[in-house]
From TrEMBL:
Source organism superkingdom: Eukaryota
This protein's record includes keyword Chloroplast: no
Keywords per UniProt: Endoplasmic reticulum, ER-Golgi transport, Membrane, Protein transport, Receptor, Transmembrane, Transmembrane helix, Transport
Residue ranges crossing the lipid bilayer per the database entry: 57-81, 102-118, 124-143, 155-173, 185-205
Coiled-coil regions, chain positions: none
Organism the protein comes from: Chondrus crispus (Carrageen Irish moss)
GO cellular component: endoplasmic reticulum membrane
Bilayer topology annotation: Multi-pass membrane protein
Membership in a protein family: Belongs to the ERD2 family.
Protein name, per record: ER lumen protein-retaining receptor
GO molecular function: ER retention sequence binding
Length: 218
């Protein structure tokens, strides 16, 4: 554990809090992509299969990881429930049209080709890494289609992007301190994911400086 990993995890937790806060306080999921939330659920479900085999009390780090995994899985499931059931009448199905089946198929093919070890768990882990790197695309696509972005929604996406950015520094730190030099797959996908957020970061910071609501160009 290092400060970059901890900071990234905390930003991830904050992003979840902001997402649920937006839905619960406004009683609406307008401006949010259900397809992105489904992709994140697929990512966490395929990455955290070790929950069935890990003893959480083995060490403090193992316990921390277990809590984080359960939080990410449960919050994703709850968000999907809110969007599909409780507030489905506010869901913008018209603009949430990104074809996520292509992202899932591409991630599956890449995982079969590029993986660290030829085992089911490693291939599923690689699949989750590839898919997570593009999971935010339906959300960004939706915001570009609709134009103006609610403040709390923009904060949610900014925290998600910040979490991935800090994880790059985490990998660099581990490269030099733990000699973890076989993480090329995570490095590559994490860099791609951060670059996807770069355009959003630019307009987010610009809107903060101008004191205006965030608007993404079409």
């Amino acid at each position: 554990m290092n400060i970059f990993r901890l900071g990234g995890d905390m930003l991830h937790v904050v992003s979840i809090f902001l997402l649920l806060l937006k839905i619960q306080t406004s009683h609406s999921c307008a401006g949010l992509s259900l397809k992105t939330q489904i992709l994140y659920m697929v990512v966490f479900s395929t990455r955290y299969l070790d929950l069935f085999f890990t003893k959480p009390w083995h060490s403090a780090l193992t316990f921390y990881n277990t809590i984080m995994k359960i939080l990410f899985l449960s919050s994703s499931a709850y968000t999907i429930y809110l969007m599909q059931k409780r507030y489905k009448h506010t869901y913008d199905k018209v603009h949430d049209t990104f074809r996520i089946q292509y992202l899932i198929a591409a991630a599956a093919v890449l995982a079969l080709i590029f993986h660290l070890r030829l085992t089911v768990f490693e291939i599923l882990w690689a699949f989750s890494v590839f898919l997570e790197s593009v999971a935010i695309l339906p959300q960004l696509f939706l915001l570009q289609e609709t134009g103006e972005v609610e403040n709390i929604t923009s904060h949610y996406i900014f925290c998600l992007g910040g979490y991935r950015t800090l994880y790059i520094f985490n990998w660099v730190w581990r490269y030099f301190t733990e000699h973890r030099r076989n993480q090329w797959l995570a490095w590559g996908c994490g860099t791609v994911q951060t670059l996807i957020y770069a355009d959003f970061f630019y307009y987010y910071i610009l809107s903060r400086k101008q004191g205006k609501k965030l608007r993404l160009p079409p």
